[in-house]
Design brief:
single chain; six-stranded antiparallel beta barrel; 19 strands; 415 residues; 3 helices; four-stranded antiparallel β-sheet
Amino acid sequence: MDRPVSKEHKRKLLIRQIGIISIAILVPLAIVLFLKSVFIPTVSLSQVTTAISEKGDIQITVQGSGNVIPVYEEIITSPFRSNIVKIIKKPGDKVFPKDTLLVLNNKLAENDLDMLKNEYDLQNIRIDKLKIELQQLREDFEFSRKIKEIKVENSRLAYEAEETLNKMGGSPAYNVKKAKTDWDIEQLENDQAKYNFNNQVNSRNNGIRELETEINILKNKIIKAKDLVDQAYVKAPFNGDLSWVIDQPGASVSEGQQIARVADFSSYKLKGSISNSWAGRVVTGQKVDIRNQGKDLTGSIENIMPAVSQGMMECLIRIDKGDIANLRPDQQLEIRVVISYKDNVLRLTNGPYYKDRGYKEMYVVRGNKAYRTKILFGDANFDYVEVLEGLQAGEKVIVTDIAEKYTREEIRVRK
């Protein structure tokens, strides 16, 4: 016969069950916590870069890039349509004024010069012909003038004789009037001959002056044509370096086509590109920090281009100070335009971790552990980044970007 279970027995059974459940939960948890504590990632501080936050001044800069270009470079173009006969110099060669860089075929230019010379000779022949005609005209007029003057004098004498006879009653008034008319006609014909002569002389002189003007124009054209012929031997315009030359002997070139460039590599400037979002805050005259293979140069904005290309505004930057010996044309450098200054702010040494303003998770070293911390960064320059939140002065931060490698909230560190 079954007996009823006592309350004391039930209580013991309940305690036993609770103990078993507790052991089943706590033992795995303890094992997990133990393993977690044992297998916490460890980072050696000697293998990462660290920085200590500090108070100090910082100049606010705008990041951009710049291409190195010579301060002065002259583009040489083909003076006429031709083809390359010979290339004398190659890119990188030092050149001096009047050094021949390359030779062009100048046959067409010589033909043009010959045509101009022939035209010049023809115009001189025309002038000589007009001068001979003018001399002949003067000689003919001189004979004609003498004959006209004799006729006028005879008419005058005839008139006076008729007038004397008329007074004596020996000649009618009609003869006097007719003699007077003949005299007047001879005088008018003499005046007309002089007028016609002057017109012909003026016409010949005008023709000579017109031809002389055309000859002067031809002289200038011949001088230019001679220059073109001589320009077949393309010369260096100044002391410098040949930065580029067309390298295809026999290639055809058109008038005005670029065939060479000579530059002065003793000094450089930068053609900078900066995001157009900074338009209005970037102005001419601002200081520019330039980084070249770990070396710093300083410059200033000389000019800002009005056009914007693909969201970037371009500017010319004059290099004011620094070693330019290692600069090369078209070399790309990092630039930072100084737009303002901030005093006594919390700052951290700049590095690859900094991309832009905003939050970033980094590990802050405290004791023998580093704790994952969300840090708010502000503006920056080449050397420092402004810290707005997440750090105190004097704290050590692992600036090597390991936040993506480790996801634990804390990691061990060793020296």
